[in-house]
Amino acid sequence: MTTTNNIILEGIGLVKHFGGGGLLSSPTVVRAVDGVSLQVKRGETFAIVGESGCGKSTLGRLLLRLIEATAGDVLYEGRSIRALNQRDMRRLRRELQIIFQDPFASLNPRMTVRDIIAEPIALHGLAHGEERRKRVDELLRTVGLLPAHADRYPHEFSGGQRQRIGIARALAGEPKLIIGDEPVSALDVSIQAQIINLLEDLKEKFGLTLVIVAHDLAVIRHMSDRIAVMYLGEAVELSETDDLFDNPLHPYTQALMTAIPVPSPVNRSPKPLLQGDVPSPTAPPPGCRFHTRCPHAKALCKEQHPKLETAEGGRKVACHFWRDIQNAGAGALAAPPASPALTKRLELYRTWRDRQDKAGAPGR
Ligand SMILES: Nc1ncnc2c1ncn2[C@@H]1O[C@H](COP(=O)(O)OP(=O)(O)OP(=O)(O)O)[C@@H](O)[C@H]1O
Fold first, then answer.
1. What pLDDT does residue 269 have?
2. What is the ipTM of this complex?
3. Pocket lining for ligand 1, CB < 6 angstroms
């Protein structure tokens, strides 16, 4: 158990297997999350990234106990939330909020925006009557909407505005931590940056902790302090964001980096470097789960599951050969096999990254 009070949320050996319960249920077990441990520091933005189907959303839901874990525990401010009864859990929900990818699906279409935002205020008894009305108006202004629009319904708003409504509702309970489950991936690129900026502003203003689940590394590059990279239900790398982007240690992280869509006049249809799909979580490969797609895989990788080991600067990586890959130098990302397309993409990626750094722009 962690005693350091700068850790607000901690997942310990979290496992979530779907199905395969008893004789009458399906014998197939989906190993959505398989032994993930992580710590989220108070006031930081922590990102969970990986391809679709890697278990990011399931992990996010486990951290808020929106679903029950098969094994493992979650500590919030040092206390196990799995042990809480329904009443205490409901109280805690106020402090732990979630915003979803598709704001339309998560907003009741038959409720006005005022009622949607007022609901958590009423539920937790935070304000009544005129005071509640004023709180809703204030929350709308906080997320960049007009109080005059409070009597409209969700369908009368654009995607970006609906996400702002979802954020206002999440803020209504005066949370300490918000999990954003792909909060911008359903939005146009231009709107994505606005929502990212809004989340960053709110984080500062209210001293929030953010956990962002995203498949797109470009989106979280400028907003996260630390990143957990997930592959097939496991955390394969945990690192400060800058270290991860400057020097990704795990071959999966390296492959994800080069899959970032880089706008370029000379390379309009970049070849994906991550060949094939993520294997099924019902039958994950033995040994290292990434070995079937890893350009560096050796015999050991097929046989032995790599432990998450601590690297320089407290980073963590689960790869038998990460040191060898690092020692092979800068060319390691492109080899083997040395591919001119990959080298070109890495060059483009680095140019784009430097340009982004200079501009200080969020997202891509
Ligand atoms: N309720 C469920 N029942 C059965 N399988 C599930 C359930 N929820 C998720 N899964 C499976 O668990 C695996 C991980 O899903 P999850 O949604 O957590 O991944 P993800 O990385 O968030 O991907 P995406 O970005 O596509 O949502 C997937 O194979 C998914 O089909």
1. 44
2. 0.97
3. 18, 30, 32, 50, 52-58, 215, 281
